């Protein structure tokens, strides 16, 4: 049960973190966003939070990091709440791509111009265009308010330096977005640069492991914040998001992660990973060194260790 697991976590987690930290040496901090390149490569921190808000926190947990691709799960949820399932899935597919997260290669294979899924960059940019609001500032404000609410209420803030750094160098994402525009996935009324601006800003929203764990906890409890009792997201949409996390959340290493850990999870190029154990825990991890597929090497190792020790795999 939860109390016994928390006890074991308190006992073993420090050793597991140190063992996993060694795996950071096999990875590299993302360099394509210049501002991320300075992050300490062998940092590793984790928070596991249960339904009562009790936390086990180990390692470099004071580190603030940007959400990057983890934000895509939550913009998907907000877009579903704003527009409904039909409108969202008119713009993005439901299939893993088998390509890198920023792939431009296979954009046309599902349907003409329709990105494979909402968690690759192409799909996430399309989803961002669906967020309700009168302009980019209001959309960003709605996204930030939604994320902050899920993270426990304290207002989250965009890291301006990371945002500017990405916006100034995002040639690939710009290419993808203009391609989406050509194919009317971004529509006549969507200004490409404005959509990208909202996208870069939500990727640069900064938080801690504990805040990430709290967001995960809401997903672990079908959209209801177990600490406040508030229903924040319809359970059907959480089900959709969790399914994407299993099939696409770790990019084209999602199959391997499903076999080794078997938990819904989403990684980002900052080295963050959000994971959850349904009906039990929200988990936030940070470990900036990434493997070739763009996932935290130490973070993946740590989550696999935990899941295998406790038998958390869903499968
Ligand atoms: N902001 C990043 C990008 O668009 C997010 C990618 C990621 O975290 N994998 O390139």
Automatic annotation (TrEMBL):
InterPro entries: Beta-lactam/transpept-like (IPR012338), Glutaminase (IPR015868). It catalyses: L-glutamine + H2O = L-glutamate + NH4(+). Its EC number is 3.5.1.2. Substrate binds at residues 69, 121, 166, 173, 199, 251, 269. Coiled coil: none annotated. Keywords: Acetylation, Hydrolase. It is an enzyme of class 3 (hydrolase). It comes from the Bacteria. Pfam families: Glutaminase. Belongs to the glutaminase family. Homotetramer. This is Glutaminase. It comes from Paenibacillus cisolokensis. The lineage of its organism: Bacteria, Bacillati, Bacillota, Bacilli, Bacillales.
